[in-house]
Amino acid sequence: MSYKNIRSIREDNDVTQRQVAELLNVSQNTYSQYETGKIEWTASTLIKLADYFDVSVDYLLDRTKNKGCNK
C-alpha cells in the first residue's frame, strides 16, 4: 500500500528522499520502496516521520485529513 500523504508532505516541505532516508538511517532506495509501498512501514519509522514533519501518524497513513499532532 502506498501512502500518498507521506510523499506529499515530503514534497510540500521541499525535502528529498535522500534527506528523509538519512533521517531514518536507511538508503535512498529503501526509502523509495517505503514510499511506493513495496516495503511496509514500521511503527517506529512512522513515528519518526510524524515527529519530523510535525503531523500525526494517522495523517501519514491517510486515516484523517487533519495534519494536527496531539503533542
UniProtKB/TrEMBL annotation:
It comes from the Bacteria. GO terms for molecular function: DNA binding. Pfam families: HTH_3. Coiled coil: none annotated. It comes from Tetragenococcus halophilus subsp. halophilus. This is Helix-turn-helix protein. Keywords: DNA-binding. PANTHER family: HTH-TYPE TRANSCRIPTIONAL REGULATOR XRE, TRACRIPTIONAL REGULATORY PROTEIN-RELATED-RELATED. Gene3D superfamilies: lambda repressor-like DNA-binding domains.
